[in-house]
Amino acid sequence: MKLSSNWFKTSHLAALTVSLCAVAPHAMAQENYPSKPIRIVVPFTAGGSSDIQGRLIADYLGKLYNQSVVVENKPGAGGHIGGRYVADSGPNGYTLLLGSIGLHATYGVYPTLSYKPGTDLKPITIVAQMPHVVVAPPNLPANSLSELTKLAKDKPGTIHFGSAGVGSSVHMIGELYKMESGAPIVHVPYKGSSAALNDLMGEQIQLLFENVPTVISYVQTGRLKALAITGDARESQLPNVPTAKEGGLPGLEVMSFTTLVASKDVPDALVEKINKDLQKIYANPDFRKGLEKLGMTPVGNSPAEAKAYIDKEKARWDNVISVAKITVGS
What domains can be seen in the chain, in order of their start residue? Predict the structure, then answer.
């Protein structure tokens, strides 16, 4: 059967109309975004560094959008309860996640996760980076990384380091120290940093590789002593504490990080719009100061840059997980 040219034209026009009708709602949704309240899921308990960052972003985004932006805490499974919740939240971009190194780079410690963080979550930006500080009770007979390593090797199995749980940044940086130094220190996981910190000050454990805001007041008042900073430069609030590189361990130069991410189902165009709106917030000196007061270095990069950074960190920590044979329960 021979079909006329008019049939082809009519058929093509109909297909184009259907295609445009399918695209139009998404384009309109992006143009009108946000037309209702936004949730930022923080996958940890209230009061911690991630929670404070989430509320800071919510405050400034709410003012920018003239719309309600609320923080919802969904702790559990190293942050993956909240991660899975956002991954399943659909394509409209009204449910975002304040992510972490544990959610993006060290989830290899969970061999049976019910979702795939690397593909089910779409990066919007890296919010900020933060060094950690190696802290110990004042009576530990070591005042530097080199002295700590010697002490651990002289008395193997007697130096215990706490963490906020298997796969947390506090845990993984401790494992990285073990790899780089060869020090036979022993991991003791807790359900959160506060419990580990209490035992450190009670001298039940001997070390923490904790983020700066959590322990800085204890260091400044002498209740704990700091042996090293894991960043690439000394911390302005702890100017007398050397970097790990200065302490002879350049491989311990490492930062933890936080992100803002969406479900993989959120269109790229909407992710780009949210990122551009965030750039307006990052241009505000008060917002940047809010992060800096937490000991964070503001980042605010593009979605592509954020993904590249996450992929690089994932490869680094996968190696640590593999070498140290770390799984949940270890």
Answer: 30-130+255-324 (3.40.190.150), 131-252 (3.40.190.10)
